[in-house]
Amino acid sequence: MINKEKINEFLNILKGDASGGVIAAIVALPQALAFGVATGIGAIAGIWGAIILSFVSGVFGPNTPLISGPTGPCTIALATIIVQHSFDLNAVFLILLMAALIQLAISLTKASDIVKYVPYPVISGFMNGVGFILIVMQLNPLLGHDVMPTVNQTLLALPASLADINFSALFLGILTLFICFVVPKSWSRYFPAQLAALIVCTVISVVFGMDVERISGISLELPAFHLPEAGVKLLMDYFPYALILAIVASSESLLTSLVADSLTKKPSNTRRIVLSQGLGNLCCALSGSLYGAAATMRTAAAIKNGATTRISTIISTCILLAILLKFGALASMIPLAVLAGILIKIGYDIIDTKFLKVVKFAPRDDLYVLGLVFLLTVFYNLIFAVAAGIVLASLLYAKRVADRTNLGVKEVYDSEIMKIEKKLEKDYKHKIRVVHINGQFFFGSATQIVSQFDELLGTKYLILNYESDSELDISAVFALEDIIIRLQDQKIKVLLVIHCEAVLKQLTNLKIKDQIGSELVFYREEDAIEHAKTLLKQKIKNKSGLHFPFWHFHH
Asked: How many domains does the chain have?
């Protein structure tokens, strides 16, 4: 017998996946074109990279709507590799092939879990660096000149470019930026601003016959299988570059999966994510297409438009392929200045504005780490930047712990309060719970603590007691914010007990205290318990309409 409820449920899922897949494909189109041009391999390599990687990773990946393809960090890493190897495509695609194999090897180990332990300032510094590089390297195309291969060369060439501006190109680039920034986000749900800018500005350039550089090398032929020439010496020479690309792509995919998990409220299999990305990138390398990763912007767009399963990634791929076959010939009319404008907007979106808004309240150690990673990313090497940031963050943390160890003596927890908590648990049937965050709450423990708050069945009021007198680093602050949001999503009211004035000041400056409510932040656990009891009694009284003394609590 056919179960109508299951059929309706499947149709609703399919409807959401179709809607999310279509939007993801529309978002991916201008980005894939722009990233292809930015690497120097060509726009068509970007499109095929988005199609192949998204399809393969969708088929073999977890049941999560991870939309994959060329991304900002992967593009910058790949562009650096291409310049360092003088546009030798055999060398480039051999490195891509090796990087894909390294990703497959990573998927067989627990290395995919390491991303959880990367401090937030390292990630922020890296993303800010990548965003800055994307913006700076598009300044020359925006002015109507050829793109320079590095940030340093771009900055050196800028005075000459400013002295000889192609005003038609500049007009199109500025119009592109205007459309990308001004179109309301509510409209972008149905027709992304980047695609609107691409179409409008291209049409204007054609109608008015503007003399601007346009995309070249667009071919509608299917990508051909190509196995790069290899040798032991080449493999040894290229291994460091392949490792860089594999780590960048795997890390970005795993970070995107964290965003997807947060939006869908479902955990993903990290090993399977890296495995599917490796298989997809292997196919890209063998077909001469662009390397990539799971893209945060496209994934978020798909999920916010109803996508819930990997079917959306397959649909996204089909839509993108149909657009290429139907309208691919028209892509040669797109001005490079328009793509430059789109990449500048992407670069701006990559920049971690969330951290920058609260940077003046961040501990000085976090700023050192962020600054080092940013400068090394922009002016030296991406993977070295991340490694150096992790090492510096670890050393600074070790120093802080050592300094506190010499001064602090841990007090024995009050036995009377423990009795109160046991009585509370018995009388209130877990409606009110007290959770102690013991030890140092920092970037290494933040993700572990967050995961423990996923399910607290039956709890109505949760008292978080942070007992340490140590200030929180920015990773812990954002983790605490995540804990509060998750609990509030579960309709659990959060009360906070903070014993340290410095920590309380931090939470006030960073607006965490406002998010909870000033009246729900306490210095003493006993006061928080009494307040939670009062709130629960009032809630039950309001629901029942009765007025009777509730459970009595004896110290």
From this structure: 2
